[in-house]
Amino acid sequence: MNAALLTFDFVLLAGLLGVAWRCLASTDLFRAVVLFITFGLLLAIAWVRLEAPDIALAEAAIGAGITGALLLVTLERLKHIMNRPRTDTDHDPAPPPDPVASDADAPGAAPTGDAASRAADAGNAALSCAPAPARGRWITLVVTVGLAGLLMATLATQEHDPGLQPTVAEHMDVSGVDHGITAVLLNFRSWDTLLELAMVLLAGLGAWSLGRHDALPARPTPGPVLPGAVRLLLPVAIVTGVYLLWAGSHAPGGAFQAGAVLGAAGILVSLARPHELPDPDPRLLRIGVTAGALLFLAIGLWGLFAGPALLTWPSELAYPLILIIETGATLSIALTLVALFIGGRSPREDT
Amino acid sequence: MIADLLTTVLVLAGLAFFAAGTLGLLRFPDVYTRLHALTKADNLGLGLVVLGLMLQAEGPAMIFKLALIWVLVLAAGATAAHMVAQRTWTHGEFERRE
């Protein structure tokens, strides 16, 4: 049994290294993105083998799923931008290519004419990066081997250290929850989680500050299959997201995983039926995007004045407070991820 | 004991279907035949694996979760296969850029 597991681990490791290498060495960016998603899924299995199901969930949902979707949509937009003719009056963006009427390699927005086709060629060339020049390779190899040797030496000489596990287990009764990871994330080290939420908020604000979003460059395939599948999958995704949020108090799960699942559901909807979706009320959207960080900060400040200290909660109130914070965080993370996918403010806000 | 044996047989049979589907993906000439090999063989393979794991499940909740996983993968796989096929039908196959 042990030998079988060891073999599995080695195959997994070899797969991880191989996929990582192919991803970095690929000259085709689309292939690199697909390999990156594969790498994320393999990494999730590796986290399961390391008995860290929380990180495995987060890696599969955020690392492979949402990041993969973001990279794919970025690539699609990049192609569209690179193929656009360069003119002096570049304030009027060309309409997104209509894939039904055009071929994959000759989008409808691609201009006709000599200069324009040269620009398109340059754009496509920039999207498939050339391999690195050969002269740095030996130095890279030496540095890599040296670093790997140092890491292995460190691992070999390190004593087995339980870390902070006993300390956390000792104080579980005051944390308000039954799951060690959640206790650390939302009670013992809530400062870190607050900063993570602030990072998510900053990413969303950064995308919004870059401008309004154009229509998505790709239209969904016609036919009833995709809307039907979305109708089937959406309720399941919402139930799964809420379940993950709820399970976080006693089992693997929590705000980030739940937010990623709900965000993925939102991305699916925005991909499947972009024409029928009305823009959300901008004020409500802003409240939703900032709710996680602001609620967290408000409750943390309340702890400074009414409780023990900043970002700490009295143990009898810990459970409801953590639940409120996690709910707000889930909402914000899900909304921000969808906003990042759509990219940019809603056009309606400027009018 | 019989359950263990059945699990082994079912999971191994499922893996054989996965292997056949992967072989088809690698060896078949165009998008449609590859989709055919992948989705049909993998859906059945996953069904067999799930059935084998159900025999080892601890309770009805676990059995239900395993069945749910299979149904969701069936739906997602069928949708993705349809979209890839539709895209290939309207746009032609992706060209290899080497």
What does this structure look like?
The complex is a heterodimer of chains A (351) and B (98). Helices cover 68% and strands 0% of the residues of chain A. Chain A has helices at residues 2-25, 29-49, 53-82, 114-127, 137-157, 165-170, 172-175, 180-188, 190-209, 225-247, 255-272, 282-306, 318-342. The longest helix of chain A has 30 residues, at 53-82. The termini of chain A are far apart. Mean pLDDT of chain A is 80; it is low at 88-112. By secondary structure, chain B is an all-alpha fold. Chain B has one domain. Chain B has helices at residues 2-27, 31-54, 60-91. Chain B starts with a helix and ends in a 7-residue tail after the last helix. The mean pLDDT of chain B is 87. The interface between A and B is medium-sized, with 16 and 15 residues.
Features:
heterodimer, A: 351 residues, mainly alpha, 13 helices, B: 98 residues, 3 helices, 84% helix
What's the gist of this structure?
The complex is a heterodimer of chains A (351) and B (98). Chain A has helices at residues 2-25, 29-49, 53-82, 114-127, 137-157, 165-170, 172-175, 180-188, 190-209, 225-247, 255-272, 282-306, 318-342.
